[in-house]
Amino acid sequence: MSRSLPRTVDGLRFLNGGTRMDRLKALLGRYYEALSYLFFGALATVLSFLLLNVFTALFGVGFATGAGNVLNNALCILFAYWTNRTFVFKSKSAGAAARKEFLQFVSARLFTAALDQLIMWLGVGVLGARLFGPDGAAAVLPAISPALWANLVKLFSQVVVIVSNYVFSKRIVFKNKQ
After folding, report:
1. What is the reported pLDDT for 27?
2. Among 59, 65, 76, 171, which is most buried by a count of CB atoms within 10 Å?
3. Residues in the chain with pLDDT < 70?
4. Phi-psi group of 16: left, alpha or beta (phi > 0 → left; psi -120 to 50 → alpha; rest → beta)
5. For residue 65, which of 144, 150, 127 has the smallest C-alpha distance?
6. What pLDDT sits at residue 130?
């Protein structure tokens, strides 16, 4: 009678290839960082859209895509730092190293926040002004309201921002936190 030898996959030992659950755990372990970044990035995106729509309802599209977008970005940066540090990259930095990490994170996020602001201004302020008349009535796209247009521009912006943020976080801020 021959005995099967254990097999190691991504640091986990399996007998006869392991169970499906073992394989799933190995895959989740292998891709944890990217999957958790996507999950918490999605939460930050939901927060960003929530704030955009709350500001739009309370103060109008102009505020929500201008000064409200700056406040939106500030709140989302703080949320993202906490989730990235705690759950995604599991940073254990303390003291001066933690301050440096925070400053690098905020600096990178300020760049992408400026990119978001630019995209929102171009998409809503410049292009949106050409699509909608001064009274907010759709001149070119009759089925789209200014608020819906702002959400579509924000969606595009968030894709650009999330990809940029991951690259900055992975390559600069949390690069030695494995």
Report:
1. 85
2. 65
3. 1-18, 133-142, 176-178
4. left
5. 150
6. 78
Q: How far apart are CA 73 and CA 94, in angstroms?
A: 25
**Nearest-5° Cα angle at 163, 141 to 51:** 55
Residue 94: CA count within 13 A, CB half-sphere: 1
- What per-residue confidence (pLDDT) applies to 178? 47
Q: Which residues contact 10 (CB under 8 A, 6 or more apart)?
A: 26, 27, 29, 30
Residue 173, pLDDT score: 84
Task: Indicate the pTM of the whole model.
Answer: 0.75
């801020």: which residue's tokens?
173
SS3 call for 6: strand
Strand partners, 7: 14
pLDDT of residue 22: 81
Helix (H, G, I), strand (E, B) or coil at 132: strand
For 22, 23, 31, the CA distances from 13, given in Å and listed in that order, are 9, 10, 18
Q: What is the Cα–Cα distance from 96 to 19, expressed in whole angstroms?
A: 45
Confirm if 75 and 54 have CB atoms less than 8 A apart: no
Tokens standing for 131?
């699509």
Q: What are phi and psi of 165, to 5 degrees?
A: -60, -40
